[in-house]
């Protein structure tokens, strides 16, 4: 592993000159992370579903003042289609000039049903998007980053990386496995100066949790347990994502950074 740069501390968090490929950035946590990375100076490659007209994140990054060298590009990929996922990293390299310095796996889906009624199709869909797509993209990133001896991979895990949850068996299985995949890749690639880490969101007010937010009983039960006294917001991930994407985290390897308002400490 290369040593942490000896530069003034604020420069450790600069992402000027870095190219980031991020999935799941059209809304919620992913959108906030893409904007934060761009604010830190990175050029961003956004992944969007074919035919999507959602340009909110793209336009927000384009509107940022500052570094004229920062660019934002869009590549199309259906992350539920593994053939499309296998082609994604190469497409991103093409539009980003042949270099990807940071991969952020943020795309995810949720399916809720009692375990006795949970369908095999829902199981396969959740495992494909939340685990297999992350594996395929991370493997492609590793093939690019390891020979160059530099890179960052950041996986979005979940409280269900640690806990079983209710009526979400596939999601819990996928996120539990993603936490272990993060550590496994870190064990192999840290010595090659590629840092692989995860971010673990707590209960965040996004559309993925709209059913919980609309259930008065579950909303009260969850809210009463959060020491911070509130649900998280997407912008709460701006600092953590920039930290893990930058030289400030050069010696952070295989870590799962919990951002949950203190939930796991209860």
CATH topology: Rossmann fold
CATH class: Alpha Beta
* Terminus-to-terminus distance: 36 Å
Overall strand count? 7
Could you describe the largest sheet, including whether it forms a barrel?
7 strands, parallel
Fraction of helical residues: 25-40%
Order of helices and strands: HEHEHEHEHEHEHHHE
How many domains in all?
Answer: 1
Shape category: globular
Descriptive overview:
InterPro entries: KR_dom, NAD(P)-bd_dom_sf, Sc_DH/Rdtase_CS, SDR_fam. This is Ketoreductase domain-containing protein. It is built from 9 helices and 7 strands, in the order αβαβαβαβαβαβαααβ. The chain is α/β, with parallel strands linked by helices and 266 residues long. The protein has one domain: Rossmann fold (3-Layer(aba) Sandwich), CATH 3.40.50.720. It has a 7-stranded parallel sheet, sandwiched between helices.
